[in-house]
């Protein structure tokens, strides 16, 4: 460490930090006994075990600073409560109603390390723990890192809490043990059943019809799977081409059926499909596939392009591996580690491959957009179960093409449609139950949010929601309360909620949806979810849209061959041939050529002035794909920019908006009360300014004193760049000095 | 065909038709090439809208003939290697008089100094409503800082540039220094660049002083007067009993310098002084780094290897080093209340980078448009950063090892700060890019020559136009709509590679796929307009109300105009 010359004046020590040595413990103990704090428990939450005199500290190289308090483990979370509560001034400006600053939901625990005799060891569940480590390091899925020292706790308590934490957060459990069950049994149903009215849940026929109507889709809503009669993986209602009969759906239990996702105004549409089981006899499946493709082309009157994701995107295991490497870059233990790893930043980032995966997904989505937008060709996305990367791509395509999905309610509806109804296995992918033998966990949904974030940071005015909204959404995945993320399919959810109730006669449990944001945040905090830079749809736009739709309808009424002359036949034939090959099990990896055509799409798109309510394409060249700083760096004290960061611009716009509001009020007041001149008091509605100046509004700023972060390893990594460094310095060549 | 647009004073030297521009992004295109004494102008009507390439001659580093295949008859080619990260290429038919003529003219006017021609700035006849040469008045700037005071004086000892030919005429030095002692100090510092004040903290009186290396040499020479001089600087600040000397160089390089005349202050001779090396490599390393950066960004970007390629240039690592150094200087003054002395070898490259960055962090005035212009005029231009040599204005000798993009690096650091504090600067990105464009263009006199002495001799202020005349005539173009006055807020950028980013809008701007981000500001600008309208209305209503109340009754006259919110909110 470099000396910082800040020994005296400036170090504004946060009031809650205490510097305690074991010698001071005796006094501390007494004080603490007097004011033992009770944990804040949610309905249905039970404390399993707790230990007093646990030291929560931040790893500082020399000094051991920290806070003493109680470490608890409940059926919902691991919590740390300190007698020394944060003062008003240092508390975070906004908070989550379910969780306090030092709470870790059990499902949010990623890894736990035990430190004994200065050795850091990964703790694995399932082993009998007779000994407990003196220190615990808990790494969370939302990238927080907690350090707890058990050294000063009573041995019995320390042992218990250690075993409790390991058991409840690292060992397999049954779905019933997930906190949502105890919560919903206790919490009043009225509270849980509130719905955000604007978000379509896609659980009813009406929702699907509405969506079909909105996009002018030429398909039908199928009730073939009502009461899950055909498949437990499929939703009860979905949309398919008219020519697909109930028998067709029954044939392979929903596999090989083109499910409608979205219709383009030109008439072409986006579909997704799960692969047929390969054991089928060739003749049958081939004929079947032909029929299905015919069904697609007949209704849409345009050719169809098949995108097989297994051949062009990374496998789920690769996704998980890459994310694990990537995430490691942000789980930083100490200042020294931060600066040492800083030198290797770019290479480690590249090695993780995570940004590359994001790029690939976006690129694939652009290709699909290109087919729909430029070639007016329907696209059928094919994936084994059509519920993983398929969801990522179909959602991304719709966000790029349809501004509705860039509004908050539209985005939430999209997730309901493509992910929840689409049967993404949230439970398995998030591995909430810690069942190792189950299917591979993979951050598929997170990958989707990452891609959306890239679009958001490149085209901020196109989105109604903010970066903070995405970050909070990504955190909500790890709160074991929302039906949205707890199940593998709608059927899974429905049965779990029914049987979960002790008396099955009574109405089934009603888990809250994550869209019920008021459960987590008050109105003020929710205002942070709105992007103040959003450029709303101009009013005249509506009229324009109408005309374009009329046009497209006219085209539809033309004979097929006239509207799409040459490409159709060959294109279609070729694609079916390819599809046959796929379903015959012979997968040809690179038959799909990432075409030059998306280059043309970019060029024509760039030529026009950017319309935030129109087509949105991501920039994909090297520098354009970036790290989601808010999500990944928000807990790293060294990386905080005091008084800066992108939040300041957001702040500025909010401020201006409130100023305008005030002025408007002032004008109104003055114009109606011309005669009086009572001094008008300015009302500032928002929270105090300085409090907002943190990159992530839900973090407290107190932990970081106002002191510049100075790299501690200047000399490292600069090694011998070239012989130039040793070359004669600047200007001393030529004319001698003096 | 219509002629190329021209600036007042610009004249066309040659025109050639049917020249092919080989665009690396959109393919070859044929058109007319015009060469004037200021620029090269290519226009093709083959595309809709017409394709135009406009390259000012000042930006040209070298011209190279290249062989061109696969472009039919056009078998001759020319590559124009530019200082601003692009290399446009042209192809043309062999043996054609007009083509030969145009390239002769190009060679001649791209390097006027080497051809005994005046730089275009001396021919430029544009008139601006504002005179940019008046932006920087050293006495006014020192007065703003509260100088002179009892410890520091504005000295005219260098008014004829006899004491030090690369320093400005006015210098701020300790009041108590005697003339004869000063002569000794002058002799002991490389290039006679003695420690002079750059900035003084308004509260603690801690100062930033800058100089060149002491001429210690291998035999550990001492200079009592120099030691005393630094002691005086320390004493001028009552808050601290220490003085920190930041040597920008790498320790090893400083040692090498010591082996031949140069060196650094020994902590045992300079009592109470602590010496810190900031480990910043020299100008050659920086030049090489930018060259590599060009390689990886022009014309194509290798997406898959982008990050490791950026890493391999070390460009951002050096940016990080500079910002780190400046943060340490600023922190020393602000938190440590300790005066600092900054030097490198000659004190006109890294020293200027560090002092000006530290001043930008410490003093919000320099974060305004006017203040930033003053900062450049003061720390860079007047204190003798050798712009002519480092940029090579009008000079054909592109291999000159004295060339180096130090100023570009500084502006990059400013951009990085701006990104981290998007509301702290009154100016926007366009302002920085405009400054860098005219660093090379030779349209304005601002960055010409190496020292104040040379500029006075060339009568620069009467014969050329200042860049600030242009900028200050349309400040709204260069204003950041997010600007909030941070007042006394010290800005500490986070000098971590995690927060540093390649300045794509400058370095990769020629790539059409790197289209600059749409102005997010649009929304904000609209809000600003609405607010000012409302503000006007409120004022009007207020006026009406007050006239009425005046005429009707004797009101207490409490003016409610306070209710109007201030334009700049403080943080």
UniProtKB/TrEMBL annotation, chain A:
Top-level taxon of the source organism: Eukaryota
Active site positions: 386
Main location: cytoplasm
InterPro entries (UniProt xref): MTMR12-like_C (IPR022587), Myotubularin (IPR030564), Myotubularin-like_Pase_dom (IPR010569), PH-like_dom_sf (IPR011993), Prot-tyrosine_phosphatase-like (IPR029021)
UniProt keyword terms in alphabetical order: Cytoplasm, Sarcoplasmic reticulum
Pfam families tied to this protein: 3-PAP, Myotub-related
GO cellular component: membrane; sarcomere; sarcoplasmic reticulum
Subcellular location: Cytoplasm, Myofibril, Sarcomere; Sarcoplasmic reticulum
Name used for this protein in its record: Myotubularin-related protein 12
Organism expressing this protein natively: Acipenser oxyrinchus oxyrinchus
Automatic annotation (TrEMBL), chain B:
Enzyme Commission (EC) number: 3.1.3.95
Biased composition (Low complexity): 547-563
A single GO BP: phosphatidylinositol dephosphorylation
Assigned keywords, A-Z: Cytoplasm, Hydrolase, Lipid metabolism, Membrane
SUPFAM superfamilies: (Phosphotyrosine protein) phosphatases II, PH domain-like
Residues annotated as domain Myotubularin phosphatase: 132-507
Organism: Acipenser oxyrinchus oxyrinchus
Active site: 344 (phosphocysteine intermediate)
Chain intervals for the UniProt region annotation (Disordered): 541-571
Keyword Aminoacyl-tRNA synthetase: no
Pfam families with a match to the protein in the record: GRAM, Myotub-related
GO MF annotation, one: phosphatidylinositol-3,5-bisphosphate 3-phosphatase activity
Gene Ontology CC annotations of this record: cytoplasm; endomembrane system; membrane
Domain Tyrosine specific protein phosphatases span(s) in chain numbering: 313-375
Broadest EC class assigned to this enzyme: hydrolase
Similarity section: Belongs to the protein-tyrosine phosphatase family. Non-receptor class myotubularin subfamily.
Keyword Lipid metabolism assigned: yes
Binding site for substrate: 257-260, 282-283, 344-350
Mode of membrane association: Peripheral membrane protein
Protein name: phosphatidylinositol-3,5-bisphosphate 3-phosphatase
């Amino acid at each position: 460490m470099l000396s910082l010359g800040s020994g005296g004046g400036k170090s504004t020590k946060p009031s809650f930090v205490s510097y305690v040595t074991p010698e001071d413990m005796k006094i501390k103990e007494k004080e603490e006994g007097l004011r033992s704090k009770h944990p804040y428990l949610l309905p249905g939450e039970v404390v399993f075990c707790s230990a007093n005199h646990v030291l929560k500290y931040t790893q500082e190289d020399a000094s051991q600073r920290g806070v003493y308090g109680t470490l608890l483990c409940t059926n919902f979370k691991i919590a740390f409560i300190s007698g020394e509560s944060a003062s008003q001034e240092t508390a975070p400006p906004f908070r989550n109603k379910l969780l306090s600053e030092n709470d870790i939901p059990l499902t949010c625990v990623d890894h736990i390390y035990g430190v004994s005799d200065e050795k850091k060891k990964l703790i694995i569940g399932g082993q009998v723990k007779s000994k407990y480590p003196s220190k615990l390091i808990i790494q969370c899925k939302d990238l927080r890192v907690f350090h707890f020292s058990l050294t000063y706790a009573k041995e019995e308590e320390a042992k218990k809490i250690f075993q409790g934490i390991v058991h409840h957060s690292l060992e397999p459990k049954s779905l019933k043990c997930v906190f949502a069950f105890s919560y919903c049994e206790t919490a009043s149903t009225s509270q849980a059943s509130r719905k955000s009215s604007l978000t379509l849940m896609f659980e009813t026929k009406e929702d699907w019809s509405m969506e079909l109507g909105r996009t002018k889709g030429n398909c039908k809503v199928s009730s073939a799977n009502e009461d899950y009669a055909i498949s437990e993986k499929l939703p009860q209602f979905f949309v398919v081409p008219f020519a697909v009969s109930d028998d067709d759906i029954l044939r392979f239990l929903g596999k090989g059926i083109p499910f409608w996702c979205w219709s383009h105004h030109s008439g072409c549409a986006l579909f997704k499909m799960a692969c047929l089981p390969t054991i089928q006899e060739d003749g049958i499946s081939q004929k079947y596939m032909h029929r299905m493709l015919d069904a697609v082309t007949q209704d849409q009157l345009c050719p169809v392009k098949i995108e097989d994701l297994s051949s062009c995107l990374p496998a789920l295991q690769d996704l998980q591996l890459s994310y694990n490497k990537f995430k490691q870059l942000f789980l930083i233990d100490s200042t020294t580690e931060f600066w040492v790893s800083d030198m290797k930043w770019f290479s480690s980032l590249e090695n993780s491959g995570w940004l590359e995966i994001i790029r690939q997904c976006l690129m694939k989505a652009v290709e699909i957009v290109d087919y729909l937008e430029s070639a007016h060709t329907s696209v059928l996305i094919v994936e084994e179960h059509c519920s993983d990367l398929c969801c990522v791509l179909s959602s991304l395509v719709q966000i790029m093409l349809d501004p509705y999905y860039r509004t908050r309610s539209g985005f939430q509806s999209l997730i309901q449609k493509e992910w929840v109804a689409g049967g993404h296995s949230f439970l398995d992918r998030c591995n909430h139950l810690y069942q190792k033998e189950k299917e591979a966990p993979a951050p598929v949904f997170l990958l989707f949010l990452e891609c959306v974030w890239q679009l958001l940071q490149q085209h901020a005015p196109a989105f109604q929601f903010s970066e903070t909204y995405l970050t909070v959404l990504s955190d909500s995945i790890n709160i074991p309360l929302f039906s949205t993320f707890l199940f593998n399919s709608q059927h899974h959810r429905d049965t779990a909620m029914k049987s979960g109730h002790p008396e099955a006669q009574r109405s089934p449990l009603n888990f809250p949806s994550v869209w019920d944001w008021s459960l987590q945040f008050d109105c003020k905090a929710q205002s942070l979810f709105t992007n103040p830079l959003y450029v709303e749809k101009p009013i005249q736009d509506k009229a324009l849209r109408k005309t374009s739709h009329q046009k497209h309808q006219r085209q539809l009424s033309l004979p097929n061959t006239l509207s799409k002359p040459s490409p159709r036949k060959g294109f279609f034939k070729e694609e079916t041939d390819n599809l046959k090959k796929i379903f015959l099990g012979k997968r040809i990896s690179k038959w799909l050529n990432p075409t030059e055509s998306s280059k043309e799409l970019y060029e024509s798109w760039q030529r026009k002035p950017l319309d935030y309510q129109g087509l949105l394409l991501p920039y994909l060249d090297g520098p354009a794909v970036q790290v989601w700083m808010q999500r990944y760096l928000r807990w790293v004290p060294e990386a905080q920019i005091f008084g800066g960061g992108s939040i300041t611009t957001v702040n500025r716009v909010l401020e201006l908006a409130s100023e305008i509001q005030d002025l408007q009020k002032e004008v109104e007041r003055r114009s109606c009360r011309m005669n009086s001149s009572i001094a008008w008091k300015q009302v500032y509605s928002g929270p105090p300014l300085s409090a907002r100046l943190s990159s992530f509004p839900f973090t407290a700023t107190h932990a970081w004193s106002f002191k510049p972060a100075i790299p501690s390893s200047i000399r490292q990594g600069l090694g011998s760049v070239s012989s130039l460094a040793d070359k004669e310095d600047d200007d001393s060549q030529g004319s001698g000095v003096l | 065909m219509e002629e190329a647009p021209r600036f007042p004073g610009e004249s066309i030297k040659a025109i050639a038709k049917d020249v092919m521009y080989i665009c690396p992004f959109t393919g070859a295109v044929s058109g007319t090439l015009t060469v004037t004494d200021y620029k090269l102008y290519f226009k093709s009507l083959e595309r809709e809208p017409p394709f135009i390439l406009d390259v000012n001659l000042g930006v040209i580093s070298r011209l190279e003939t290249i062989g061109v295949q696969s472009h039919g008859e056009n078998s001759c080619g020319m590559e124009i290697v530019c200082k601003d990260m692009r290399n446009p290429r042209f192809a043309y038919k062999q043996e054609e008089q007009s083509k030969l003529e145009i390239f002769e003219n190009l060679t001649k006017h791209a390097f006027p100094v080497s051809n005994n021609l005046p730089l275009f700035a001396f021919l430029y006849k544009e008139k601006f409503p504002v005179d940019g040469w008046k932006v920087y008045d050293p006495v006014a700037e020192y007065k703003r800082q509260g100088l002179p005071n009892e410890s520091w004086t504005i000295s005219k000892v260098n008014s004829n540039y006899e004491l030090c030919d690369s320093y400005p005429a006015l210098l701020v030095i300790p009041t108590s220094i005697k003339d004869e002692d000063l002569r000794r100090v002058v002799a002991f510092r490389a290039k006679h660049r003695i420690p002079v004040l750059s900035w003084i903290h308004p509260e603690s009186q801690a100062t930033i002083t800058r100089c060149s290396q002491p001429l210690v040499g291998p035999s550990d020479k001492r200079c009592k007067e120099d030691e005393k001089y630094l002691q005086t600087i320390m004493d001028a600040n009552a808050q601290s009993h220490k003085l920190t000397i930041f040597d920008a160089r790498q320790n090893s390089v400083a040692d090498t310098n010591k082996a031949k005349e140069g060196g650094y202050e020994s902590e045992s001779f300079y009592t109470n002084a602590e010496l810190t090396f900031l480990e910043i490599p020299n100008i050659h390393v920086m030049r090489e780094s930018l060259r590599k950066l060009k390689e990886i960004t022009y014309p194509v970007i290798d997406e898959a290897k982008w990050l490791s390629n950026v890493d391999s240039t070390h460009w951002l690592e050096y940016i990080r080093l500079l910002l780190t150094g400046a943060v340490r200087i600023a922190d020393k003054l602000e938190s440590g209340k300790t005066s600092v002395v900054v030097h490198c070898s000659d004190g006109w490259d890294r020293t200027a980078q560090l002092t000006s960055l530290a001043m930008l962090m410490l003093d919000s005035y320099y974060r305004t448009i006017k203040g930033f212009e003053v900062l450049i005029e003061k720390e860079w231009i007047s204190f003798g950063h050798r712009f002519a040599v480092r940029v090579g204005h009008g000079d054909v000798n592109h291999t000159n090892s004295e060339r180096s993009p130090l100023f570009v690096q500084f502006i990059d650091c400013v951009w990085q700060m701006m990104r981290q504090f998007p509301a702290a600067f009154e100016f926007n990105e366009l302002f920085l890019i405009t400054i860098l464009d005219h660093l090379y263009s030779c349209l304005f006199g601002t960055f010409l020559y190496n020292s104040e002495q040379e500029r006075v001799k060339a009568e620069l202020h009467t014969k050329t136009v200042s860049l600030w005349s242009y900028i200050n005539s349309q400040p709204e173009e260069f204003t950041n709509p997010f600007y909030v006055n941070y007042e006394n807020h010290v800005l500490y950028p986070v000098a971590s590679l995690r927060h540093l980013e390649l300045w794509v809008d400058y370095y990769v701007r020629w790539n059409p796929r790197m289209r600059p981000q749409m102005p997010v500001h649009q929304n904000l600008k609209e809000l600003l307009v609405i607010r000012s309208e409302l503000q006007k209305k409120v004022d009007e209503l207020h006026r009406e109300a007050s006239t009425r109340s005046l005429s009707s009754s004797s009101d207490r006259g409490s003016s409610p105009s306070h209710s109007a919110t201030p334009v700049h909110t403080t943080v």
